[in-house]
Amino acid sequence: MSLLKYTLGLSLVALTTISQAREVTGIAAKVNGRVITKNEINYHLTPYRQQLDAQMPRKGPQYEKFMAEATKDILDSLIERELILSEFHHKIKGRIPAHAIDGEIKRQIRELYNNNHSEYVKALKASGMTPQQHRRETEKKLIVQAMRAQQFANAVPPLPSEIQAEYNEHKMKMRDITGDALEGHKIYIPKADPNNPLATPETQLALAEDIVTKLKKGDDFEELARKHSADSYADAGGKVEKTPRTDLSPAFAAILMETDIGKILGPLEDARGFTIVRVDKKYYGPAPALSKVKKNIEARVRTKKNKAKQDRWIKRLKGNAMIDIKI
User: Which residues form the signal peptide (predicted)?
Assistant: First the structure.
C-alpha cells in the first residue's frame, strides 16, 4: 500500500478516472455523532485510485481488492481523526491559524500535484469536494498533528543521533519533487487508430500487452517503438530526453519516479491510449536541509519512541466513543 501512503506518464492528458462519475454523497460512518461522508473518503482515495487505474487498465478482482483495502485504511484513519478532533474540541476549543492552513495547502499542491494548481482543482472536482471543504479537511489534519504532538510534549527528547538517522531515512521523501526529472523510452498505443478502422480500445490494449510481453522476453525496445508507437518519439526509437516531472500528469509521475531503472512498465492507461515505459535515468529534486525540517523530524522520532503510549491513547478514545460504520 506504499502508493496510498505516498501519493505519487509521459502524458499531459487527464486520466480516465477524472471523468468517471462516482457516488460521493452519503454517510460512511458516525463518530460521537460527527459524520464522515463518502466524499471525504473519495477525496483521500483519489490519488491512489488514479495511479491504480493507470496501472491496471483491465481492473478485475485484484483491482477491487486493492481498492477495498485502501478504502478500509482510509476509513479507519478518518475514524481515528474524528476521535482526536472530539478530544481537541472538548479540551482545547482552539483554532489553527489561517496562514498555517494556507501553507499546508501549498505543500499539498507542490507535492501531490506537481505544483500545478489546475491539477489540484481537477482532483477536487473528481472527488466531489469544493476548495472550502478541502480547506476544512486540511485544518482537521493540522489539528490532529498538533494533538498528537501534544501527547508527546513531556516525552524524553530525541537524541541527536536519532534525529540524524530519521532525517537520513526520510529526507528524499521530503525533497522538492518539482525538481524531479527523468529520461527513458516509451511506446504509445492510442485507443483509436485512424489507420485501422477495426481497432477498438480492447484490441489496442491487447496489442500493448503483447508488446510488453515481447519486451520482457528481450525484444529491442527501439525497434518495437519504431514499428508500433503512435507519437512524435517513434522515429527516435521511443527515446525521451530529460523531462521535468512537472511536465507529466501527477499520477504518471508518481508511478514512474517509484519505478526501478530499466524495468518495463505498462501498459499504463490514460484517456487516449496506453503507454509502455522504460525509465533509463532519474533525477531528484533537492532534499531540505536538516535545519529546515528539524522540528518535523523530532516529532517523527517522538512518535516512534512513544508508539505504545499513542496506541493506549487511541484505544482509550475508541473505548469511550460511539462509532457507527455505515459502509
Answer: 1-21
